[in-house]
């Protein structure tokens, strides 16, 4: 036996692992983080900083800087997200107008900016000024006639195709992760999954540039979802500058939750809605501290956007509305009907879009993403141009649909027949009979509605940045405006009916069609995303219509109930399942009466569980086990016979530890004994130096007994964010349950394909 002196002499060598080595505690791509370990590492770090801060003034200053680093990161995220959103808004405005014409005095001006600077603009023709020329005027000096129309039509399609081709090419070549809305992946990342590069600098740059291109191309998509992805990329970049966040995946996710709030804040000019969106829809772990920081980040982002003033109306929002009449109880019925429409449209959209995306994944269609984008852009541009409601940008369309008809409105939707004897203040115009402009606008809106419903199904999910908020709101706003005009005309022509008699007298301004558009937009957005509280707050922040909260709430709740009757999944959850991300949704209920023993591995007839023993395996044995299996970690037991559980060792850390030991420690060879105990085992003389790996052993792995109900196990995985859980009986190891096993079991219980969970 080796004498005690020798053992003590080699003890210093063997304990080198008590010092952390590079990459320990990090995770591989497409793996889930261990929330409990990240939390305990942060607590240890905090304890260390607190105890050191009492030693000197410098350490005290360092502890203050550490405490303030979170707020500094939030400030930087808010500033960058707000700036990028402002630049995107200005660029989209200019490039959308570029498809129709150009400003001669300054080509970088949009149509509106060009005519602001003109001294020759009249109020009636405020969209026309000599400085702004359509392409036909510029190229063939004709503004009217068939040839001018065809030339403008052709150039509109060419510009759209050019923008779309450039966008899909940039995404394909430089940043494949910049496609889609990004919210399903952000949700998955916030639940603890690692997707390296998804929030990288290239993704941030390409997503920002291509977002401008695709929105300007006129495709049926919005920039709101992708702006959440852009803000999270900003959050990831700034958190990598501070070791507190870069070395702890759990803390990094707190920053990303706040960044998501800043993204919605600048997308809609809705800081409070952004915080609630992050809490309700995106975040997995949202402590109170993150709530305050999200609020601060959203505030800074909104303030930055307001300073840039991209809409030129000194407001944060594009759709600011001011209605002059209250709503009446009888109107709740059409509002609830719009809620039902929103729920049905949401269900239809999710089912059709997922079926199309699945087809894209499983057929040859998915091999030609560039061709798909070009074809959809061409179809969109060809059908959109003849209809004035689909030709303009979707944001402008929604803005017009939300508007109340004042005396100065020149829109077709406000072409009512006026009473020549009317002597009313300008703001309070009574209900009037619809003129020919309103009837033709209704037809055009009906066609635009059908077109938007169909084309959005094929557009969302292509290999370009694509948001869903604005197209969903457009569908709802068109349906709502048509219902609003219908109710208004009904009230005007039949004011003696019992439902109108109490609140709608002749000559009164009873019904506001713009309000119906707003309620319809909320209903459709709720039907697709299944948001409720954050949706209502975003809508009234977006429009400034604070007194219309009850109609918005009624529509949002109705649309959620109707949509939930057909399936509980919103569009983002559906895309998470389609892509096979390991996401355990907190909202899902598990009601089946299965036990841990039914789910754990190994099952009957399978090979026994791969384990490490505490002091009887050599380095070569451990390396062979790692090579022959692809498990993320191994339980450590006293011996193969007793199978008494000691702890759990992660695969990545075993590999790194052995590699470091071979480089830094003399005498560690293939037949060196690996031990996980405090004291080294007794070894024969002349045997090589043993290798102590106790440092990387998790001595308190989460365990359940074999008779624990799966309902409890699922709850534990959700609430503690576990990667795996060991199953024991009377201290003896029986098996292991991983997050993937839980997801497969839940899929099996729901009669779905358990193999659809692709990632670890």
Overview of this structure, please?
With 760 residues, the chain is mainly alpha-helical. Among the domains are: 363 residues, Clc chloride channel (Orthogonal Bundle); 155 residues, CBS-domain (Roll). The chain is 56% helix and 6% strand. The strands form four sheets. The chain has a four-stranded mixed β-sheet. It has a three-stranded mixed β-sheet with strand order 4-7-8. α3 crosses α13 and α11 packs parallel to α13. The protein is elongated, with a radius of gyration of 31 Å.
List the helices and strands and how they pair.
Layout: H1 4-14, H2 35-52, H3 57-98, E1 101-103, H4 111-116, E2 132-134, H5 135-140, H6 146-174, H7 183-190, H8 201-216, H9 224-239, H10 243-246, H11 249-268, H12 271-282, H13 288-308, H14 332-362, H15 369-384, H16 388-391, H17 394-402, H18 436-459, H19 469-493, H20 498-501, H21 513-529, H22 533-543, H23 549-566, H24 571-579, H25 596-599, E3 612-613, E4 617-618, H26 619-628, E5 633-637, E6 645-650, H27 651-664, E7 673-675, E8 691-692, E9 697-698, E10 703-705, H28 710-720, E11 724-729, E12 732-738, H29 739-749
Parallel strand pairs: 3-5, 7-8, 10-11
Antiparallel strand pairs: 1-2, 4-7, 5-6, 6-9, 11-12
Helix pairs in contact: 3-8, 3-9, 3-11, 3-13, 6-8, 6-15, 7-24, 8-9, 9-11, 11-12, 11-13, 12-13, 12-22, 14-18, 14-19, 14-21, 14-23, 14-24, 15-18, 17-19, 18-19, 19-21, 21-22, 21-23, 22-23, 26-27
